[in-house]
Write a structure and sequence with these properties.
Number of helices: 13
Radius of gyration: 22 Å
CATH topology of the largest domain: Aspartate Aminotransferase, domain 2
CATH architecture of the largest domain: 3-Layer(aba) Sandwich
Number of strands: 12
Bound molecules: pyridoxal-5'-phosphate
Structural class: alpha/beta
Helix content: 40-55%
Distance between the termini: 47 Å
CATH superfamily of the largest domain: Type I PLP-dependent aspartate aminotransferase-like (Major domain)
Length: about 400
């Protein structure tokens, strides 16, 4: 059985992924026969509780954590909010957050609204990135103060795939006694993570980015880290998150983590080769195109390419005619035509930022699909440029 929709060329896996067939299979019994409440005393519920234990271990194994450090949530956004708000509650006398200018809205918008949410005034430092999307560690060190409650820095950027030096940044925070959160929603399953060796206190995961269903996530909380639940309620998740567990999806997430752990090295080598072929092919065949983000410090599946003098949304519409799915920064999701805050932070010129397309691959993509995209993209860009008043021919 293949879950993949064969009708589309799906290169938008940083937005969401197909659910792996093995994951669907693992989930089915919990949507049909085993519907007991995992907190119930009788065996019919207890065996469902057992399945949560297995899933917790599968997730923990993928990231080098202990099962007790894993709390299931509803999504990556909930995990991010929980981590940051928990740290602020643990240290009410500290009112400073250090983060970056390129975080996903799950962290960015929480920081923007944290004063309203908490009723307290906070100081937020948003670290700059350079033209390749990398942070300056000296700026980071200088930003940390006695009043810093938490650092929240993503492991890998969802738009460019750029990977931040989390190990070093977490160590620096630890030396200063500051809690460290990383939004690893795009990294988990794509790059190896071993939290045993890291000073990370909180880490966020989202199921639907790694071939599990939507609506399930994880917050890793290092043993001993002060913690206050975001959802108060029942005693579920050892009192760390109220609400009856989304059992089938949690079982699916566990299976997805097991699959990712088993195949990561081999599959990511293959995905990276496909990504590189796509990226190099596009840059070679389309004039005035450029890669956004660091060449090597990057997720193996992501290529963010700008096509100057054309509009990202228009490119997507033309790609859609060939059933090729990708994404143009955050413009389409925000409903505005503003270029993405990530590319703006990197200083990508307006003409290029507007025409940026994020291609994000998965283990289910094939070389034939990449070849198809490489065949269609030059003609799409050329036809759009013919209509552009700004295009004056190859300007490389
Ligand atoms: N963080 C990053 C880096 C993401 O890419 C996303 C989703 O795009 C999220 C957080 C939010 O995850 P969820 O959709 O599970 O809330």
């Amino acid at each position: 059985m293949s879950q993949k929709n064969e009708e589309v060329v799906y290169l938008d896996n940083n937005a969401t992924t197909c659910v792996a067939p093995e994951v669907v299979e693992a989930m089915m019994p919990y949507l049909t026969q085993f519907y007991g409440n995992p907190s119930s005393m009788y065996n019919f519920g207890g065996q469902v509780g057992e399945s949560l234990k297995i899933a917790r271990k599968q997730v923990a194994d993928l990231i080098g954590a202990d099962p007790e450090e894993i709390t299931f949530t509803s999504c990556g956004t909930e995990s991010d909010s929980t981590a940051i708000l928990s740290a602020l509650q643990s240290f009410p006398e500290k009112r400073h957050i250090v983060t970056t200018r390129v975080e996903h809205p799950a962290v960015k918008n929480l920081c923007d609204t944290v004063d309203t949410l908490t009723g307290h005034k906070h100081r937020i430092t948003r670290l700059k990135v350079d033209a390749e999307g990398m942070l300056d560690l000296d700026e980071y060190k200088a930003a940390l103060g006695d009043d810093t409650a938490i650092v929240s820095v993503m492991w890998a950027n969802n738009e460019t795939g750029v990977i931040f030096p989390i190990e070093e940044m977490a160590r620096i925070a630890k030396e200063r006694g500051i809690l460290f959160h990383t939004d690893a929603v795009q990294a988990v399953g794509k790059v190896p993570i071993n939290l045993k060796d890291l000073d990370v206190d909180f880490l966020s995961i989202s199921g639907h980015k790694l071939h599990a269903p939507k609506g399930v996530g994880v917050l890793y909380v290092k043993r001993g880290t002060p913690y206050t639940p975001f959802l108060a309620g029942g005693h579920q998740e050892h009192g760390r998150r109220g609400g009856t567990e989304n059992v089938a999806s949690i079982v699916g997430l566990g299976k997805a983590c097991e699959l990712a752990a088993a195949k990561m090295e081999e599959e990511n080598t293959r995905v990276k080769a496909l990504r590189d072929k796509l990226e190099q092919g596009l840059l070679a065949s389309i004039p005035n195109s450029m890669l956004n983000g660091h060449k090597t410090e990057r997720l193996p599946n992501t290529a963010n390419v700008s096509f100057e003098y054309v509009e990202g949304e228009a490119i997507l519409l033309h790609m859609n005619r060939y059933k090729i799915c990708a994404s143009s920064g955050s413009a389409c999701t925000s409903g505005s035509l503003e270029p993405s805050h990530v590319l703006r932070a990197m200083g990508v010129p307006f003409t290029a930022a507007h025409g940026s397309i994020r291609f994000s691959l998965s283990v289910y993509n094939t070389e034939a699909e990449v070849d198809f995209v490489l065949e269609k993209m030059p003609e799409i860009i050329e036809s759009l440029r013919k209509m552009s008043p700004f295009w004056k021919g190859d300007q490389t």
